[in-house]
């Protein structure tokens, strides 16, 4: 099946000489939520801007919904909705006028019923006659989403969609994004909130210094790269690890009361033998606790590996 976004060998060098993208290859599937992660200056905004027709590419090719973003830019652009990070709206317009104008920009026929449903879905309909300048920051961001969806695009780019909004509104927007995906819209988001990618994305791509260094399903990424640890709280302290336990990746706390076993999905089967060895050594414990690396831990480790 043809990907809804296909990026092949994409480069971009700005007039200053800064190389923003270095041979990027990326495929995004129809109907998925794809999160693009990367530190500041990694190339996220440049990549999105080229796909959306805002920045001219260097070498390479980009297809959006099967259309070349350079040769067939009108058709490609009509397939895409973009919610920018900045609040780029006419503050003196009403919500209704702003959304209706955005639809008209793409030559779409008037469809007040669709726009009404869109504003209701975004909890904006009761504000439709309100000037944008009078809205809260969260409501203004919803207006940006409404404008991006006004022409019924099949692909929606969200550049830091929840930046500057409170936690409650952020979760409301997550719910809304999932609903859009269920309607068949492909969602590509960039975010600095690692928990946002962990909560929302089907697949995750990591970009660093203009290169895509990894693309994988979120769960695969967690399974392959996520580190886990088992903490064992002993009832009596140890002065040192017994010889029988040295075959495990164990560390002993300074006070001798806690053993920490570091493992991943490949060697977690060793937990049962470890507990049996503790019993054989008559080492009683009062508590067992496990935790797993977050997506943020994985992201940081990937970037650090590239820097090394």
What would you say this structure looks like, in words?
This protein is an alpha/beta fold and 308 residues long. It has three domains: 1-79 and 153-226 and 293-308, 3-Layer(aba) Sandwich (Rossmann fold); 92-151; 227-292, Alpha-Beta Plaits (2-Layer Sandwich). It contains ten helices and 14 strands. The chain is elongated and about 80 Å long. The two termini are 38 Å apart.
Most strands sheet: 6 strands, mixed
Q: Which superfamily, in CATH terms, is the homologous superfamily of the largest domain? A: P-loop containing nucleotide triphosphate hydrolases
Strand arrangement across the biggest beta sheet: 6-7-8-3-9-10
Number of helices: 10
CATH architecture classification of the largest domain: 3-Layer(aba) Sandwich
What is the terminal-to-terminal distance? Answer: 38 Å
Please tell me the overall pLDDT: 86
Structural class label: alpha/beta
What is the CATH top level name of the largest domain? Alpha Beta
Instruction: Give helix and strand order, one letter per element, not per position.
Output: EEEHEEHEHHHEHEHEEHEEEHEH
What fraction strand? 25-35%
How many DSSP-defined strands?
14
Q: At the third CATH level, what is the topology name of the largest domain?
A: Rossmann fold
Instruction: List segments where confidence is low: pLDDT < 50 over at least 5 consecutive residues.
Output: none
Shape: elongated
Question: Helix share of residues?
Answer: 25-40%
Question: How many domains comprise the coordinates?
Answer: 3
C-alpha Rg (nearest Å): 25 Å
């Amino acid at each position: 099946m043809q990907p809804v976004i296909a990026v092949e060998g994409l480069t971009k060098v700005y007039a200053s000489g800064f190389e923003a993208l270095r041979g990027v290859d990326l495929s995004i599937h129809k109907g998925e939520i794809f999160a693009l992660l990367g530190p500041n200056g990694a190339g996220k905004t440049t990549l999105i801007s080229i796909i959306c027709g805002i920045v001219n590419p260097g070498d390479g090719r980009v297809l959006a919904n099967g259309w070349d973003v350079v040769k067939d830019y009108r058709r490609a652009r009509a397939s895409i909705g973009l919610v920018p990070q900045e609040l780029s709206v006419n503050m003196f317009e009403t919500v209704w006028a702003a959304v209706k104008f955005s639809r008209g920009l793409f030559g779409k026929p008037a469809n007040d019923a669709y726009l009404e449903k869109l504003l209701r879905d975004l909890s904006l309909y009761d504000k439709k006659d309100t000037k944008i300048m009078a809205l809260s920051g969260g409501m203004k961001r919803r207006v940006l989403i409404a404008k991006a969806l006004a022409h019924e695009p099949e692909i929606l780019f969200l550049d830091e969609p929840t930046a500057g909004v409170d936690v409650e509104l952020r979760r409301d927007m997550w719910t809304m994004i999932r609903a859009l995906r269920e309607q068949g819209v492909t969602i590509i988001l960039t975010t600095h909130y690692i928990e946002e990618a962990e909560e929302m994305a089907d697949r995750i791509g990591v970009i660093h210094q203009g290169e895509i260094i990894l693309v994988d399903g979120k769960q695969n990424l967690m399974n392959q790269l996520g580190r886990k640890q088992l903490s064992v709280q002993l009832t009596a302290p140890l002065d040192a690890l017994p010889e029988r336990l040295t075959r495990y990746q164990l560390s002993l706390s300074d006070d001798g009361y806690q053993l920490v076993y570091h493992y991943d999905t490949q060697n977690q089967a060793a937990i049962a033998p470890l507990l049996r060895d503790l019993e054989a050594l008559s080492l009683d414990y009062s508590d067992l606790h496990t935790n797993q690396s977050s997506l943020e831990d994985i992201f940081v480790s990937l970037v650090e590996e590239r820097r090394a």
